[in-house]
Structure formats: structure tokens, C-alpha cells
Structure to design on (432 residues):
């Protein structure tokens, strides 16, 4: 099969970025003037999530240090629902992969799957919370605010959701997602979040917004009484900064890697235009006829939730799947369609050729193809020649090099020539 010729392009980005993240965290906490709210010597549970928040180690360390300065005794609790295989040790290991350890944080990490019930919603849902957090004098919520991969609301993925699902541990997350089948996440998250805010000793929330380069673009601390409205404003900013593939239509999208640290669904549905989540309707745009996922990241530790969003995968990806982690997460989040195994090819060459056989009447050399590293790294792409007329008409895109052929090793796997991403651009992955 003759494959299309490829070019390297760049999206011209100039996003806001926080240059001193730890300093911004300390300044925001100082701005809240917490001394009148904080119990002297009080134990403070600080949430640590699993979503690959940029600079999360620096953010959590600065938060804990600020609380110590105020005379408090902070500790960190994993707040990640069923992630890490739904076990206490697995969740501790997830934090360690983000360089969040007792040694690096200077505080204890208390990981347990035990919960306590703090009440019930009128429609029957028991509201559960991590036992260690429930026993603390105060709770601090720390998370990134971003568009959710499952639903649309004024608050989506952020502090309210962490309060409802993250701190609910495995059982709480499972019950919350099951309830969402009946009433919807768009109702459940804000309603249960408000209930929990009224029942739990929330000291403050600390939210971040990230730009298209997966850099921290904003840090904001907020008191509990304005947490929901503040998070809603931050979500609007997150939508405006969300990285996107700069084409509404492709015959084939090649995604080099998927993983939980990239998106809760392995690759972001808001980027690829596929939800596959009942009862949501599928997005009208973008429309990518076929998607190929080539690999799993190391940090996802075998959790391949989201592989079902792809039509095709490689043996490389399939061999790394930890079905216990994947299915625990999928059953808890009710993301069964997203966790099915795509059609697997032994090599990259076979996968690309197989995908291009299924795009209709368009001949492979004329196919509109784009290749990305993952759905967070979208500044640099490889694109096929048929996309050049559109690129040349746009001021936000520039051609960096090409044409070049797809190059494969003797084993049939892609060989980089030229590199897909400039080395100087690659994120440091501290929080990826």
C-alpha cells in the first residue's frame, strides 16, 4: 500500500503560564487569611489525586508547608476513587509515580479504602468519605479544574468532583457512578458536592487550570462558601485554554500513547470527538473516521481505560494491558464501551494499512491523516499532504518540515525520521 506523504507542523500557541507554581500556591493560601478558621495544631487532610496534574508534587508540598507555617499538622490522603486497582497500596503507588511520597512531601500519606457514611441524598445515594479525611479537623481539596470527559455542567472535573468521587474511595465512586445512570452526573456532582460541603470541615480548596502545553496557567485558592462558583469560573477558563487538534475532519488519527495521566479516559474525548458514554450523545465535531492507538504510557501502569475509543491498536499496546486495573476502573466509572479491546494488529505498519483500508472510497495517498503524541501534546503534529491547502490558509499553523515517508523498522514499527516532537519542547512530565 502506498501511504500518504507526511509533514511536521506546529500550532502557534502563546498561552498564559505560572512561572513560580510553589510561590503562587503560598501566596494564594496567604491571601485567604485562614488563622481565624484553623484549629491550632489541627490535623488537616490534603487530597492527592491521580489525574496527572502538572506540578502536583510542588503544589502539594507548598500546600503542606503553608499549613505547617500556620501551625497545622497536615497529611495527604489519596482521593482517586477506584484508581490504583482500588487498593490502599495501589493508590499510594499512584502518588509515588507523581513524586508524592512521605519523604518528598515532609508529611504522612494515609492511604485506606475505608469510608464512613456522612448522610444520604433524598434520592437514596449514601454519601461516603475517606475515613482518614473524616477524622481530620480540616480538609483541603487540591485538584485541577478542567472539562470532564463524561458530562457537561457548570462544574465538571475539579474540586467538587474530587469531593464527591475522589474522597468516596472505591465504594463511594462506584455508588456515585451507578446513581449517575439514573439522575446524571450533571446533577449528581453539584448536588452531592453541596451536601458534602455542608457536612465536612472543608478549610479551603486549591484549584489549578492548565494550558494547551499542560503547564500550570492559574492557581487559585477559595474558601468553601464560594468554592462552587469559583470553580465554575475556572472551568470557563479551562475550556478556553484546552488544547485541540486543529482539524475538524480526518480519515485517520494516529495517537502514539494513551494513559490515565493524560486523561481519565486514556485520551481526551473532548479532543478526539468520541464519548462512548451512556446516555451522552456523540459530539458532532470533530469527526475522525478512524483512530489508531499505538501504545500505553509507563505511568498508566497497565490501566488501559479509553482503548475502546480507538478503532485499532497494536500488539505493543495490548501486551501492556493490566486487565484488573482497567476493568476495576471501567466498572466503577461505568465506562464499559471505552474499555473494550480495539482491533489489534501485530505492527504499526499493519495497523496503519488496516485503518486506511476502512475509510471509504478515498485512496490511502489522498487520506487526511494526523499523528499526535497524545491528547495533551498538541502543539506539534505530523499531518498528511492532503491537509496542506487548509494549513496554508491559516495563520495559526506553520509547516516545519516535509515531505517525508512513513518509515518502518524491519519488524514493522514506526521509526522516527524526523522526530515527531522537538526535544526542547517536550514537557518535563513531573505531573503527567
Amino acid at each position: 500500500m502506498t501511504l500518504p506523504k507526511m509533514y511536521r507542523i506546529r500550532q502557534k500557541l502563546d498561552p498564559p503560564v505560572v512561572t513560580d507554581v510553589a510561590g503562587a500556591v503560598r501566596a494564594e493560601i496567604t491571601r485567604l487569611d485562614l488563622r481565624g478558621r484553623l484549629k491550632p495544631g489541627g490535623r488537616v487532610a490534603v487530597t492527592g489525586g491521580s489525574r496527572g496534574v502538572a506540578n502536583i508534587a510542588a503544589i502539594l508540598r507548598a500546600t503542606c508547608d503553608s499549613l505547617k507555617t500556620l501551625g497545622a499538622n497536615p497529611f495527604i490522603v489519596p482521593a482517586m476513587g477506584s484508581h490504583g486497582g482500588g487498593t490502599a497500596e495501589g493508590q499510594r503507588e499512584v502518588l509515588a509515580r507523581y513524586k508524592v511520597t512521605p519523604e518528598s512531601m515532609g508529611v504522612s500519606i494515609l492511604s485506606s479504602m475505608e469510608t464512613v457514611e456522612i448522610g444520604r441524598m433524598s434520592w437514596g445515594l449514601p454519601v461516603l468519605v475517606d475515613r482518614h479525611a473524616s477524622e481530620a479537623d480540616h480538609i483541603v481539596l487540591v485538584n485541577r479544574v478542567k472539562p470532564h470527559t463524561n458530562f457537561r455542567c457548570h462544574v465538571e472535573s475539579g474540586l467538587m468532583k474530587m469531593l464527591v468521587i475522589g474522597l468516596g474511595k472505591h465504594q463511594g465512586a462506584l455508588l456515585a457512578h451507578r446513581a449517575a445512570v439514573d439522575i446524571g452526573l450533571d446533577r449528581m456532582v453539584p448536588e452531592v458536592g453541596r451536601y458534602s460541603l455542608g457536612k465536612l470541615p472543608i478549610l479551603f480548596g486549591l484549584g489549578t487550570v492548565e494550558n494547551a502545553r499542560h503547564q500550570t496557567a492559574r492557581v487559585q485558592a477559595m474558601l468553601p462558601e464560594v468554592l462552587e462558583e469559583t470553580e465554575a469560573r475556572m472551568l470557563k477558563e479551562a475550556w478556553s485554554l484546552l488544547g485541540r487538534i486543529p482539524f475538524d475532519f480526518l480519515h485517520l488519527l494516529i495517537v502514539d500513547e494513551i494513559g490515565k495521566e493524560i486523561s481519565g479516559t486514556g485520551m481526551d474525548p473532548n479532543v478526539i470527538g468520541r464519548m462512548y458514554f451512556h446516555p451522552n450523545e456523540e459530539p458532532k465535531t470533530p469527526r475522525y473516521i478512524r483512530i489508531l492507538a499505538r501504545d500505553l504510557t509507563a505511568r498508566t501502569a497497565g490501566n488501559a481505560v479509553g482503548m475502546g475509543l480507538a478503532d485499532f491498536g497494536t500488539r505493543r499496546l495490548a501486551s501492556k494491558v493490566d486487565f484488573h486495573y482497567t476493568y476495576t476502573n471501567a466498572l466503577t466509572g461505568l465506562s464499559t464501551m471505552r474499555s473494550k479491546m480495539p482491533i489489534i494488529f501485530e505492527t504499526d505498519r499493519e495497523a496503519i494499512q488496516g485503518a486506511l483500508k476502512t475509510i471509504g472510497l478515498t485512496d490511502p495517498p489522498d487520506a487526511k491523516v494526523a499523528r499526535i503524541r497524545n491528547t495533551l501534546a498538541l502543539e506539534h503534529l505530523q499531518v498528511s499532504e492532503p491537509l496542506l491547502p487548509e494549513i496554508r490558509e491559516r495563520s495559526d499553523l506553520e509547516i516545519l518540515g516535509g515531505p517525508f515517508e512513513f518509515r518502518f523498522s524491519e519488524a514493522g514499527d514506526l521509526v522516527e525520521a524526523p522526530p515527531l516532537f522537538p526535544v526542547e519542547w517536550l514537557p518535563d512530565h513531573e505531573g503527567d
Q: What stands out?
A: Residues 21-241 form a domain with the Rossmann fold fold (CATH 3.40.50.11440). Residues 423-432 have pLDDT under 50 and may be disordered.
